[in-house]
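pinned: reference chain
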Amino acid sequence: MIANEGRSDLMRLHQKVRDSAPALCVLITLSLLFSGCERVALDERFFDTSLKGWTVIDDPDTIQAPSDWGVEKDGWLHQRSNIWGKRGDFIGRWYGTYLVAGDSSWKDYHFSVRAKPGDNDGFGVVFRFKDPEHFYRLFMLDDQMSGGPLTRLDKRNGAEYTEIWSARRGYKVGEEIRIDVELTGAVIQASINGTELVQVKDDSYPTGKIGLFCYAQQGQAFDDVRVTLH
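pinned: its structure tokens
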């Protein structure tokens, strides 16, 4: 009797597997398909103090140059210089320093970073970076003397920046934040700490690298830079 019940259970299990096989195959296929659509292209925790793969770019004719980027004992990347402006002209452009990485062919991607400000001036991220005069920039500024409080998305074309979006919003010195930028075709979406900040369309630069930015921001820290390609 026990043996017969065991055989019956086995037959029911076999039938259940056969019945669910098509659905299971579809599920596995979809999982493989969607996992192949996204690829982590950059996952930087700054374990390597040499900053291999990163390039420092300082705007020309800036004051208190050069920049001072380096990984420190706390495991964060820091920028210690007060590099800012351009002689006779700084507000509206907010020249400074960039640390750039990635591939110029990157098109649609998600870019995230943790940031911890140690000063009240400007910091942020750049993306779809073609060269030092062609890219998008999202930055935050708190110092009123420099035009803050301000959070602004702009694009650079040559020496000039064109504002795409802005808000009278600053930040708290010493408070860590997470910046996320999502790029899909001409759509640029940015969020702070998981809350959407802006979503706009601009097709000026379809591809490019990513980077970190500082303007007169002595003591800015960054960590956990991640880029996922779509």
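why pinned: Residues 155 and 161 are 5 Å apart (CA to CA). Residues 40-229 form a domain with the Jelly Rolls fold (CATH 2.60.120.560).
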